Prior knowledge:
Oligomer: single chain
Distance between the termini: 80 Å
CATH class of the domain at 3-95: Alpha Beta
Amino acid sequence: xxxxxxxxxxxxxxxxxxxxxxxxxxxxxxxxxxxxxxxxxxxxxxxxxxxxxxxxxxxxxxxxxxxxxxxxxxxxxxxxxxxxxxxxxxxxxxxxxxxxxxxxxxxxxxxxxxxxxxxxxxxxxxxxxxxxx
Length: 133
């Protein structure tokens, strides 16, 4: 994954933060909105695009656009850095292919242990009954 090429495809937009905060919030656009068009991206091949669209389907819009916000800091520059790092981490985690599970047999010792425990439990319950007279 070429991060420089990927970052060049990102679109940043500065917006006013919501919520309480007084004059600074009302006049400064410190919130950063990152948008990334996955479908038209040149950074990924078709297989990677399919994998990303499957893993990120809840975060993508119907047009295949990923949108992330950050208004954690009062600085627009820091918010841009934070949202970029978050984006790269999301993409990196989505590109990881899960390891295939190998089916294994249950060990004979485990089967014998389970059957032995069942026999012991059965005997305990049998001993609780009244003896036949």
